[in-house]
Amino acid sequence: MKLIEKVKVFYRRNEFTYILCYPLRIAYNLFFFYLIPDKIAIERKFYKCQGYKLNWNNLKTYSEKMQWLKLNNRKSWYSDCVDKLKVREYVTRKLGTDKYLIPLFFETTDWREVKPENMPDEPFVIKCNHDNASYTIVKDKNDVDWKQLKLYYKRRLNGRSFFWCNREWPYKKVKPRVMVEKFLVSSGRDYKLQEFKFHCFHGKIKVIAFYEIGIDGVERYRHLNADYTMLSENCSFGSYNEVKKEFDKPIVADEMNMIALKLAKDFEFYIRVDIYHVDGKLFVGELTFFDGAGYDVIRPYDWNLELGSYLHLPIDKN
Predict the structure, then answer these.
(1) Given this model, what pLDDT does residue 65 score?
(2) Fewer CB atoms inside 10 Å of the end CB: C or N, the chain?
(3) 127: Cβ contacts below 8 Å, ≥ 6 apart
(4) How many CA atoms lie less than 13 Å away from 51 in the CB half-sphere?
């Protein structure tokens, strides 16, 4: 392990270093995040990720138009939709039932409450409601370093708002909480988990990203048309590479379409609706306003342009 990696590991696992470095974190956040206007921050990160400057006067691709939405499509109720706890209320209201919600075991604003006494006696997932990728899968609560887990979620709850990472405005006012949900896993022979990500433009499904973890542990990712047929060309989105393999339309396709369309109805421009399929049952994962924050590299470029053509902005040129 390289020295820099050893330092990072030591910092993450030691509470004393976390306290000691607090003034440095404040200074870092101040100069690299808080004092930089949203538009400039977006331009800088876009250039870093995409390799070219953003032209606000001629936005064509999906990636480019996402940046305009960050600055101009700001409605107060959007915050409830990215809050992984409050969005449960929205989903229930729009679908008229709570049967599509992942069972919730526990939630708290206090990292000290992340302890075995508050956890179920079955596999579960711990995560935060206000950020991304903060989840921890626990299959046996007796086989967990709870001290380290508490420290981890203490930092997640007390860190800077997730908004500052990519200037995704809906996250700015989400109150951080820790939540514990049921661990979804299939009992079938072929796969452990299937997830369908419905990319909805102006209330209509245009692209479906299908993600699967096989029983062999191999991750597979495919892009589908709205009718569940494979896209005609190889595509990649961020770190996910397209896997060309025969795909059968799932028997729950119509039900998933119903869910996605009902949840997408209120969003004027774009929303991504994530749905898990487990043993014939469906669960809504989350709603996303900016897939990949608009920074993930989409290949080929022509596909990025095609996705951009689905998104009609008030400033678009005829």
Answers:
(1) 98
(2) C
(3) 84, 134, 135, 136, 178, 179, 181
(4) 4
Tell me 10's DSSP state. Answer: H
Poorest-confidence range of 34-38, 188-192, 293-297? 188-192
* Inter-residue contact 127 to 83 (CB < 8 Å): no
CB 298 within 8 A of CB 307: yes
Whole-model pTM over 0.85 = yes
Task: Determine the 3-state secondary structure of 301 from DSSP.
Answer: helix
Q: What separation in angstroms does the CA of 215 have from each of 245, 246, 275, 277, 312? A: 16, 17, 19, 15, 40
Q: Is 59 exposed, middle or buried (0-12, 13-18, 19+ CB in 10 A)?
A: buried
Question: Do 184 and 102 form a contact (C-beta atoms < 8 A)?
Answer: yes
Mean pLDDT (whole number) for 170-184:
96
At residue 223's C-alpha, the angle toward residues 222 and 225, to 5°, is 140
